[in-house]
Amino acid sequence: MRPLFLATIAALSLMPGVAKAWGGTAHTVIDRAALEAIPEDGPVFLRKYEDYIAASSLLPDSWRGNSENFSKIEEDPNHGWFREQFTFLKPIPRSRYEFVIALYKQYEKIKDSDPETAARTNVRWTGTLPYAAIEAYDRIVVCMRRVRAADATGENASVAEQNCAFDVIRLGHYIGDGANPMHDSVSSDGWRGPNPQGYTTDRSVHGRFESQFVDGMKLTVADIAPRIGKPSRTEGDMFDAVLAYLDHSGDKVGAVFALEKRDGFANFADKDVREMVYERTAAGATMLRDMLCRAWAESVLPPAQVEPSPLDFANPKFNPETGSAPD
Fold first, then answer.
1. Could you read off the pLDDT of 47-67 as tens digits, one per residue?
2. Residue 134: exposure state from Cβ atoms within 10 A (0-12, 13-18, ≥19)
3. Phi-psi region of 309 (alpha: psi -120 to 50; beta: other; left: phi over 0)
4. Which stretch is the leader sequence (predicted)?
């Protein structure tokens, strides 16, 4: 896999306008740490694709270029979850499209009375990260069923495994982004709104934290591997778990800005900033590992039979605005 790793890194580095998100270092470390923490009763086949997955950790960012606007419009929101923008929405809909429609209804409601807020009441300025993550998770469950089926019959499972590896790239990126508090707040690129603490409004703060500092401190898998315990999140609703994970991360955004006030993230030896990076990247790797193990456990079961179908008007959850019933 090493030649593929180097070739993919080279290709991504040449793409114009690629937003680096956590930065290549952190995304790669999160992915590798998660895969290496999979226990022996988990989807260990994914370890064979560690170099491929790690080398492709920034791939979803490359789908956001201004020159590929169809892809950009769909992909951009998948990398953020700006909670302050939709406090009016409780509970969070269990459907991407119900979420979009709810935002538009709020936009229509406030566009005349509060045009400034209305201008950001849309998916680009709220984000859709938990939907992107749970959609990738569902795809991984499906492809893992195919891996199991091939293994059970003695067939070659390599194609099914490669399909899983590709979806792990997507899930890993979104979960990695969610580990960064700046991806879970409207203050992703400088503090927005009331600012009694005098936090920076400089847009470069995002990159200075997640790329410049992480690269400068030379983050490695060994730094966070001891922080990843045994798999958890083995029960309960996975979408709810993703939302809780993002909430926990977003709650730390003020702490990140407070750390920035010291020296602008220029001191790579700053123990507190380093600890924030260690804790957050370890949390991302843990969440990714847990989701992969949970998907593997779910894949042993046959697909649930949903009657009436989500597309059936008789389904009690059927929503005529989306044409389907949410999960």
1. 999 999 999 999 999 999 999
2. buried
3. beta
4. 1-21
Q: How far apart are CA 291 and CA 279, in angstroms?
A: 18
Token pair listed for 308: 């009436």
Contact (Cβ atoms closer than 8 angstroms) between residue 179 and residue 251 = no
Which two three-digit tokens encode residue 327?
A: 């999960």
Closest to 104 measured CA to CA, from 94, 83, 90, 89:
89
Residue for token digits 């935002």?
103
d(CA 274, CA 259): 10
Which tokens is 71 given? Answer: 């892809």
Backbone phi, then psi, for 319, in 5-degree steps?
A: -115, 110
Q: Cα torsion for 256, 38, 18, 204, to the nearest 10°? A: 10
Tokens of 290: 């847990």
3 state SS of 324:
strand
Residue 188's DSSP bridge partners are: 190
Angle, alpha carbons 159-291-44 (nearest 5°): 45
The tokens for 236 are 């309960």
Question: Residue 108: in which H helix or E strand, if any?
Answer: helix 96-110
Model pLDDT, residue 23: 74
- pLDDT of 15 reads 37
- How many Cα atoms sit within 13 Å of 288 on the Cβ side? 34
φ/ψ of 221, rounded to 5, equals -60, -40
Question: Is 8's pLDDT higher than 70?
Answer: no
Q: Tell me the C-alpha distance between 96 and 274, whole Å.
A: 35
Q: Are 281 and 30 in contact (CB under 8 A)?
A: yes
Q: Per-residue pLDDT tens for 225-280?
A: 999 999 999 999 999 999 999 999 999 999 999 999 999 999 999 999 999 999 99
Q: What percent of the chain has pLDDT over 90?
A: 93
Strand partners, 190: 188
pLDDT digits (tens, 9 = 90+) for 147-157: 999 999 999 99
Other C-beta atoms lying within 10 Å of the C-beta of residue 108? 11
